[in-house]
Amino acid sequence: MSYETNVFENLHHRMITNGFEHGQKIRAEHLRKEFGCSASTVREALFRLSTLGLVQFQEQRGFRVPQKSRNTLHELSHLRILLESEGAIQSIRQGRVEWEARLNAAHHQLSHIEKRLNETQISEPFIDLWFAAERQFHETLISSCGSDLLIGTHRQIYDRFRQQLMVEDRTFNFVSDNIEHHQQILDAAMSGDEALTQMKIHNHLARHL
Amino acid sequence: MSYETNVFENLHHRMITNGFEHGQKIRAEHLRKEFGCSASTVREALFRLSTLGLVQFQEQRGFRVPQKSRNTLHELSHLRILLESEGAIQSIRQGRVEWEARLNAAHHQLSHIEKRLNETQISEPFIDLWFAAERQFHETLISSCGSDLLIGTHRQIYDRFRQQLMVEDRTFNFVSDNIEHHQQILDAAMSGDEALTQMKIHNHLARHL
DNA sequence: AAATTACAAAATTTCAAAATTATAGCTAAA
DNA sequence: TTTAGCTATAATTTTGAAATTTTGTAATTT
Fold first, then answer.
1. 88-117 in A: which are within 8 Å (CB) of B?
2. Per-residue pLDDT for chain A (209 aa), expressed as one digit of tens each?
């Protein structure tokens, strides 16, 4: 793996997991010391991230983490509902027992983590586990839709969605609602009811609209 | 405007207007002579294009224009229908007389070009005009949807869609169908019939599914 | 006190050379 | 004839310095 790809993946992850603050200036000249490479290599990675919307680029003024924005969150939620509903519906239509098994497994893991969080309120060591399991659940939900493009686009939106919520994610205020919502989404998908699945996905995200 | 942005925009345009052939290797080392800048600057622009899906990047093997792919076109069409329908529906709901005026203007220009193309079969001088007008019509159709994110995502998909059709676009075989389809989309949108608009968009793109 | 100017420091952008890797062609051995 | 090994060439990746622009601060002017 090349240096640039290493830098890209590292920064990509930190952009959506509160590794940098909203609005923070990202200086290639500083990060090069941390990564032990040239500022040009960091700059390349930042350009890719800017195209993904995870960093804002302004000529001659460098790169900056996007601010939290109520409007951006609204738009991301709306588009995420659209994509995830379509992906889930197509997965219901095209998925097989294998998809159901994977979805149940993903849900099992996620609900296990969320229930632990809900009982103990021990937060910090679980955030990474929760983060990965939440993503895995939603991605598995659409994984049999038959379109890599839809999956990729959904991922792009999901990443930006997570970035907008990266501070709030760490308060864990959402957990009890999530347990219920994720269960409802799973049940609806397992029952093969497309409209119900779409409605449950919408309910899950409606508070951000 | 910086060099890199210049290079990016130039390459971006050529990626979707048959400036390079499907599957062609894109060498920064060669293009630097054309642009009169360093290969590193070209490489930066290519990284951005790769994130947009208009160029494929492979470590140590550089950049390549994506092949034509029946499957990719299918996925792009499906996703484009999804996004464009949603954008059109939201525009119908949220748009005002001003949106209708802009859409009628965009359609007028597009149909004028398409009719000329249909009558005279003079192709080459019109491709750029048609290209711009077709894009303008579809973008205007969704322009009052209230979501910059949806508009931006649609544009990204539309670009890739045009790349897949950039050779076929130059045969002009589609023109008479297009005249009819665009008119139907306009009429449906003007009538405020959401379901009909969605159906007409679907019909317009169904041959690529 | 507020606005403007000048200058130094910091940051950004670009460059082309060095380091590294892939590719192509040739030769020898099996 | 095929395969493996070697070498030269071409291309890719990375580097850090030079060129350019922005930012911050102090001094001056209004």
1. none
2. 788 888 999 999 999 999 999 999 999 999 998 998 999 999 999 999 999 999 999 988 899 999 999 999 999 999 999 999 999 999 999 988 999 999 999 999 999 999 988 887 666 778 889 999 999 999 999 999 999 999 999 999 999 999 999 998 888 888 889 999 999 999 999 999 999 999 999 999 999 99
Q: List pLDDT tens digits, range A30-83.
A: 999 899 899 999 999 999 999 999 999 998 889 999 999 999 999 999 999 999
Segments making up each domain of chain A, as ranges: 3-64, 70-208
Identity of the amino acid at B53: G
**Sign for the pseudo-dihedral over CA of A29, A31, A33, A37:** negative
A60 φψ region: left (φ > 0), alpha (ψ -120 to 50), beta (else): left
One-letter amino acid at B68 equals K
CA-based radius of gyration for chain B: 18
| Residue ranges of B 135-164 with Cβ closer than 8 A to chain A | 147-150, 153, 157
Q: Which fold has domain B70-208?
A: Four Helix Bundle (Hemerythrin (Met), subunit A) (1.20.120)
> In the structure, how far is the CA atom of residue A61 from the C1' atom of nucleotide C7, in angstroms?
21
CATH fold, domain B3-64, is: Arc Repressor Mutant, subunit A (1.10.10)
User: Measuring CA to CA, how many Å separate B186 from each of A76, B134, B137, B181, B192?
Assistant: 28, 13, 9, 9, 10
Q: Is the ipTM of this complex over 0.85?
A: yes
Same fold, B3-64 and B70-208: no
The Cα of B162 is separated from the nearest Cα of chain A by a number of Å equal to: 15
Q: What is the CA radius of gyration of chain A?
A: 18
3-state class (DSSP) for residue B134: helix
So what's the pLDDT on residue B119? 83
Using a CB-CB cut-off of 8 Å, the residues of chain B touching A145 are none
CB B113, CB B130: distance < 8 Å:
yes
Q: Which residues of B touch A153 (CB under 8 A)?
A: 79, 153, 157
Residue B121, pLDDT above cutoff 70: no
A43, B47: Cβ pair inside 8 Å? no
Per CB-CB distance under 8 Å, the chain A contacts of B60 are 2
Query: Quick one: tokens of A60?
Result: 């001659």
